[in-house]
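To close the chapter, one final illustration. This time we ask the reader to focus less on the individual chains and more on the assembly as a whole: which components sit near each other, and how the overall shape emerges from the parts.
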Amino acid sequence: MNDSEVVVCRLSHRPGRDDRMTTHVGLTARALGADRVVFPDNATGSAETVRDITDRFGGPFEVELSGETKALVRNWEGTVAHLTMYGLPVQDVETELREAVAAEPLLVVVGGEKVPFEVYDRADYNVAVTNQPHSEIAGLAVFLDRVFDGAELAQSWEDADRVVVPKETGKKVVEPDE
Amino acid sequence: MNDSEVVVCRLSHRPGRDDRMTTHVGLTARALGADRVVFPDNATGSAETVRDITDRFGGPFEVELSGETKALVRNWEGTVAHLTMYGLPVQDVETELREAVAAEPLLVVVGGEKVPFEVYDRADYNVAVTNQPHSEIAGLAVFLDRVFDGAELAQSWEDADRVVVPKETGKKVVEPDE
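The assembled structure is written out below.
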């Protein structure tokens, strides 16, 4: 759905402790309009879960494992936005970010423990969804919703095995028409 | 910051497995403008973490433990919005929800495993932030940002020990002026 590729990169991952958080970063990236997520190569279980959801609920969406997430940030050809509670308010930079993503690929960096200074330094935008401590998943969600200006909520999915039909009450899941 | 009280209720909690998710639900509720969060009474560690953050970064924000989260939903005097991937698109109901929160207290129900049908049935709104599986934390974040129409990003905090000053690069934390 995007003019240019939008990629979410989870910088670091602690197996066990971070499994659900990393999985939710990936699922949020997929549901809210990113084209691809990159996890550290020790996040194999999270990658599997996100791929499985993509197989069942549709794509296109890519999941990658990388041993070099910091190099990905360093060498990214396009705009780098790093989500951090120390950054500039998202509401102050979202217009610029929308223009950036129309022009060139956007890498959205979601930290973990101890983000090295080189990431702050390389980032074109250090972006804060509030300057309060909360959740990298919540920050990513609001960031994507604002950068895509809500268009991600109307995106369609290809090659889904199942489709949820919105209901006032209860649950309705159908097979896709095609 | 709200006309009426906005309360987030985490319906169920599995100690150990859900600790970080429940903590992030609480921190997201606080950072993105809710007045209070209610956790199941087995989520003591998460409650402690959210209270600690409130002590350090400011309030007002209340954390409660309850042995009767389902009864809270059942007996809520005001509007109940239940976040679920099976519900109506948030973009279709957000205007009504803004009017509702201006008029009466809003309870935002964040599920867990196996939400009983009575919650779907009691809810005035079953709301989906996309009809895709992703994260209750991401869903809550986008929901609050939309219901508050971004006003929550500009809220001020009382009785904080420390304040993060937005920076283009790096980190700046100061003591509050007062």
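Helices of chain A lie at 19-31, 44-57, 69-75, 90-103, 117-122, 136-147. Residues 12 and 112 of chain A are 5 Å apart (CA to CA). With these observations in hand, you are ready for the problems at the end of the chapter.
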